[in-house]
User: Fold this.
Amino acid sequence: MSALARADAQPVFDTLTRADGLPSDYVQAVYQDRFGFLWFGTDAGLARYDGRHVVTFTADDGLPDPFVYAVGEDRAGVLWVGTFSGLARKEGERFVEVATPFGDEPIVAVEPGADGRMLIQTGTQVGVQEEGGWRVLDAGAANGWSGVVALDDGSIVVSRRLGETDDGPWDLARFSPRGRTPVAVATEQTATGGRWISGAGDGRILLAGREEVALGRLDEGRFVPEAAYPIADARRMTLGARGELYVIADEGGIWSADAPDVPPVLLSTQRAQDLVVDREGGVWVGTFGQGVLRLAGRHLGIVTRTPALRLAVDGPTVWATSGAAVVQIDSETMKPRSRMVRPGLREVVVAQEGLYLTSGPSGMWLEDPLSPALPVPRFMDPNWISGMEAATDTVWVSGYGSGIVRYRDGAVLDTLRAADGLGTDMVEGLTRTSHGVWALTRSNGAALVQGDRITRVTRTDGLPSSAIYAVGEQADGTVWFGTDRGLGRWDGERATAVGARELGRQRILAVFERSGVMFAVGERGLYQVEGDRVRALGPVLFGAATRASINAVAYVPATDRVVLATTAGILSLDFRKIPNVITAPQVAVLSLRVDDDEQVLMGSVLDGRAATIPPGRHRVEIEFASLFYGAGAGVEYRVGTGPWQPTGPEQRVVFSDLGAGEHVIEARAVGPDGALSEAVARMTLQVAPRWWERPAVVWAMVLLGLGVFALTVRELSQRRLRREVERLEVGRRVQSERERISRDLHDHVGAQLSSLLAGVELAKLARRARGEADPVGGDGAMADPLEAVETDARETIRQLRETIWALHDEALTAGAFCQRLDAYVRSHAKDRIADVQVACDGTPEQVLPPAVALSLYRIAQEAVTNALKHSGARSLAITLRPTAASVSLAIEDDGRFVPPAGGDGLSGFGIGSMRTRAEQLGGTFDLDTASGTRVCVDVPVTIPPA
Assistant:
């Protein structure tokens, strides 16, 4: 069977060329190191690829020659490079030339030995690394590309040319672990003449003969084949992730055999040089002039190379619109048949009466689309038709600006517009589910039409976006939406975004159920939905592989295929051939940029290396790589023991103002299925301190600051202490003066008043002894001058005692003040006012300064006197409210306010006297006579200086 006749034998390769940064498109060597980096040896330098960036290395970076033949690494992970002029080894961030017994001869093969030492090969000899040098083995007259394999027992197997030319006989030779003389290895007749060998792992060898490739082992000096693949003239071979064989042919071309004794498939006719299978199952091929090709599996094949727009499925048949033609595809053979209809074909829909097509503002149907009969128009739309649905006898047509029009037998049934609940007249397409017909829009979500009822689902209902590209239904009735920002799920009541982390912000172009499992097709790959998680299904490349846009996607259950209409043609994806090799990604640090100085790092920094940065504040930029090539992976980072956070699509972290100290940055890769890299990359950034940031200087400044602080505190404390002593001394003196005044008032003024009262009493007794009557006034009032003198003297003594009480008591409390005031008011009110209340509204223990207490007492006396003499009040209420900062006094009565004609009361100044006393204390005085009389005084506890 011809390989080129099979549609699935035409895989789509992703390419990497000089336009992507390779030094050259002539690639001799392809290798993946243990970290996950891919290395490409070209005739113009070595290139390292991480999936996003290409970094090149030439003679300026230490290579003996820019022409690179081979790349490998030893057991310690050190990279070795064979060039046209000798051997090099990576040391740190550069390559260093390694001396060999072969001088500047080309090193065409680099392989690790069983004991970790390196094997190198020239055109005729093999070098085995030993302590202090190399052991040279004569490999015979081979051309150097035949290969060398190290077995687990330390022996070495080479392929030798026995004749004068490569077309002559060849054999296998084995060198013992320490021997220098080769021993011929017997082979089966089918493998006789094998010219090329390579290791296949687990002690196995791939041997290429004239007519086939044999896989086998050495057993007692004999090559025993286990399997044979019918591929002729092979020279580079490797096994794939599922055991399939990939081969580069001697005369050009890339072949694959799924199993032994199965006809091979020609994957590409391009001339290739080397190939390797990465950890994800992708096959990388270095070509002679076309750069590097990547085959992510043979599940993706080309059906046509003409751009296609829309798809429809009818059993195993797939219909497509492609330019002016309608294309019929048998999904079993994937062979297309097409017929030209008219330019501008857009939609294709399978209906009960035939196949419907749309072209601009018209609708057609074709009973037999491949017959020469012209299509018959069935309906017209004034706007461009964007979608159709015709699963029943009713044809639904959506348009750009027309909303939805429903037809039956060519007649319009009704029209649904934005005013009816669609949200917009710009409808992009129609999809039927068991719930009804969904109208899809790019700005207003999806609208479900059920008879006359329309239900809209948008971003506000929980979808990732209101731009809808696809609708799919699960068997349990759950509806899935593909949007331009990921996948959404709707259970009939509410919507939920699903797989945002794994999908990122990509368009989901199809959602379908397969064997009870939901799958989604996005711009970057195929995904399997598992509950609320999304898993990338193998290294499936769509748009990235073809550099094209996907216009439509259709799943064909009859043949388990996905068909894609793209701007590069129609592609077919076979579920049965998806490699589905998902491995945890690896993480690496690519570069470190400090301000404008960039340092390129040639590998992972899993060893936690440190970078020393000069003193100052710096802008530091670190670029990471998630070494994953089949599907999108990301990188998370953290600083110290902080939380993990994503780096974003650029996989770059920027610290805009990094100062002195040790900063530990860790990073890990996150696969498309959420798998985390096993190892964590760690980098320590040590920013040297400036002179004033050095520990000794900082401690000295701290100690100096503490000293200054202590002196300042001591000085301030002493000042406060002196002020407190002065205040206490002044207070002591004031109190002493008050006590002296109190004693003087008591001893002198009080004694004189007492003597005065005693004299009045004696005068009254003497007058009574003489038999004189007490004088009485004409109106019956007492007119005895002695009685008046006695009354005034007693009142003066009482006020003198109150003054002595206020001046002498330094710790007068609010409670004691209220008790004294209550006694005064009740003694004077007596039968004049029956309802008297004196209350302390606050803390009774609050101490009142003597001057404040005396002034408030006098104000209260004045107000009470006015109430008793003039107002005719029946109730009197006095309230004292002390606080830590101030004290207020309120005297209220229900009598009539009589403005005084002049000085009145105890002080002789009345209201003016009360206001003056309050203001002298720094307080306020307020008089309210709207209803009764209310006197309110509010003074601070601290007395202002005079």
User: Anything to note?
Assistant: Residues 1-9, 903-909 have pLDDT under 50 and may be disordered. The two ends are 121 Å apart (CA to CA). The chain is about 15% helix and 40% strand. The first strand starts at residue 14 and ends at 16.
